[in-house]
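Narrative of activities, Objective 1.

The group set out to show that a structural description can be obtained from nothing but a protein's sequence at a throughput compatible with the screening campaign. Below is one input-output pair from the validation batch, recorded exactly as produced.
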Amino acid sequence: TDQTTLFQQLYDAYPDNVAFKNGLAISYFKLGDFYTDTDTARARTQFEAAEKLWAELVAAAPQYAQFTKYLDMVRSRLAGVR
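Output recorded for this entry:
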């Protein structure tokens, strides 16, 4: 989507920006949701991309409990996508 492309471009330009990384992870998560019922392989790819970014955010900024919540949420969704 256009929003995901924008977040990817912003993240590429500013990889240390927490907000851009989180926005990109949210976009990937939403794409995973979108594809869950129609293309499970694509959904898994999107969820894995979100998981990677949120795992980095949890490691870099453990004080933000929301990142841990998002990471748990995406891992739960990954477990349900075969």
